[in-house]
Amino acid sequence: DLATSRAALLLPQQKASLTRPVTAALHNLRCCTEPWPAWCNLADALNVAEQLALRNIASDRLPEIQAGQKIMHDIYHRQDERGTWAMRAHELDTLDFALQLHTIQLGLCTQGELKDSIQAVQRRVQQALAGNAPKNARVCVGQIGIQAQTNKSTQAEVLQ
């Protein structure tokens, strides 16, 4: 039944299917192996982590998650401006910690909370790509946002 499944925690295999690609993406970004898909995967994970934190799942760690998002923003702009995906040690540490927090969140959230968080990311990205992001918003657009778009720009990031 729908209510029961929304209230249930993620099953171990569901959590693993969400964390494995993120772990691989961080490794790939670190090694500059297929960095663009890796960047998108990490952006998605951190966007969902932010939404989960806003739903009071590790909400006390929102600053660390947002620090990870800022690193993603910086990486994107550095690659755009200089053509390099290279990261500094403190950036790797910040990303690794933010992603560890997301893994913890996945162990604490219900299936419904996760679904709602993913949908919130999709709506936020759609609004940003439509030019409706708040001034000074930093929106990293990964595949979740792109999948939500139909016949719209697939730009990597919107900054206002």
Q: Can you characterise this structure?
A:
Strands 1-2 form a two-stranded antiparallel ribbon. Helix 2 packs antiparallel against helix 5 (89-108), helix 3 (35-54) packs across helix 5 (89-108) and helix 4 crosses helix 5 (89-108). It is mostly helical. 70% of the residues lie in helices and 4% in strands. The chain contains seven helices and two strands. Residues 148-160 have low confidence and may be disordered.
Brief overview, please?
The protein is mostly helical and 160 residues long.
List the keywords.
globular, two-stranded antiparallel ribbon, 7 helices, 160 residues, mainly alpha, 2 strands
Distance between the termini: 42 Å
Helix and strand content put the structural class at mainly alpha
Mean pLDDT: 87
- Stretches with pLDDT under 50, minimum 5 residues: 148-160
Largest sheet: 2 strands, antiparallel
How many individual helices? Answer: 7
Overall geometry comes to globular
Strand order of the main beta sheet, please?
1-2
Question: Strand portion, in percent?
Answer: under 5%
Helical content band: over 70%
Secondary-structure element pattern, one letter each: HHHHHHEHE
Total E-strand runs: 2
Task: Provide the gyration radius in Å.
Answer: 15 Å
